[in-house]
Amino acid sequence: MNHIIYAQSGETLENQNHMRRIGKNIRITINRLTVSYNDYGPENAPVIIFIHGFPFNKSMWDDQMDLLKDNYRVIAYDIRGHGNSDPGTDDFFIELFVNDLLRFMDKLGIERSILCGLSLGGYIALSAVLKKPDRFDGLILNDTQCIDDTPEIKENRCTAIIRIMKNGVEYYADEIIKNLFASETFIKKKDIVATVKEMIIGTPKQSLCNTLHALAERKDTCDQLQEINIPVLIMVGKEDKITPIAAARQMHEEIRGSMLKIIQHAGHIINLENPIAFGKRLVKFLELVEKKQFV
Q1: Closest residue by Cα to residue 266 from 195, 182, 190
Q2: Residues 35 and 100 sit within 8 Å (Cβ to Cβ)
Q3: Residue 208: how many CA atoms within 13 Å on its side-chain side?
Q4: Which of 125, 193, 211, 272 has the lowest tally of Cβ within 10 angstroms?
Q5: How would you list the strands of the sheet with 47-51, edge to edge?
Q6: Are 268 and 180 in contact, with CB atoms under 8 Å apart?
């Protein structure tokens, strides 16, 4: 049995030659950037890295890590400026988040992994696979898309930045949360809504603004999707208002052999709103990848 070690605040793995630490809120320094992550599962098992959405943190993947940790090495990390990871000093761009991910993998001695990202995490995961296809064995894209922002959406993000600076984070949380969930989630799963709101409020004001800028400036990747030649699962909530089913279908049509699954009773955060259905699809996909039965 692996011994679980809980890293103390500020502790790093700088000179430990990839010595693995198992547990929660482990801190590691990569190029002067301190990153917080959770790491569980067998040492030599296939690696799955979970990338959270905006403006959330790695805790959103707790249920999926518990589900998979007996058979996979599961890692969830806070992207810079979110959760317990430092923001650093660079301007935020999707490419910067991708480079952070690749350096993170290098630091942990992970040569290859499967990526699972939601929303912003999906943008990062997709861009990482396009940039370094030889580093990844599978890709799970959840409630995300390949298109860039329309002028209207870019303007909305700029307006949101102004409002955050003027009115604060809690005001922004109240505004954004209206579009995050399926209608029944607000009624039947108020605890999930409250948890997500807490994540948003816990995100520093400057990180919110910097990430909104990164989202507005991201590049369209739709014309590169045909280059992907690893197994891909695309999942989307039936009531996702932010990245709707049409956006998921567009990616599915462009990525050869990809699977598309629509998750019922869910909006934009499917793994929290319907973890059972999400988990079943996730496990089935991973089994197909492991057995190399994916078409």
Answers
A1: 182
A2: yes
A3: 25
A4: 193
A5: 23-30, 33-40, 73-77, 47-51, 113-118, 136-142, 232-237, 259-263
A6: yes
pLDDT tens, position by position, 201-251: 999 999 999 999 999 999 999 999 999 999 999 999 999 999 999 999 999
**Rounded to whole angstroms, how far apart are CA atoms 16 and 29?**
12
How open is the CA angle 49-51-54, to the nearest 5 degrees? 175
Q: What is the CB neighbour count within 10 angstroms for residue 184?
A: 13
Q: What is the pLDDT of residue 139?
A: 98
Structural domains of the chain, with CATH: 23-290 (3.40.50.1820)
d(CA 178, CA 26): 33
The packing angle between helices 205-217 and 94-107, to 10°, is: 110
On whether the pTM is more than 0.85, the answer is: yes
The secondary structure of 200-251 as a DSSP string is: HHTS-HHHHHHHHHHHHHPPP-GGGGGG--S-EEEEEETT-SSS-HHHHHHH
Under a CB-based contact definition with an 8 Å cutoff, are residues 276 and 214 in contact? no
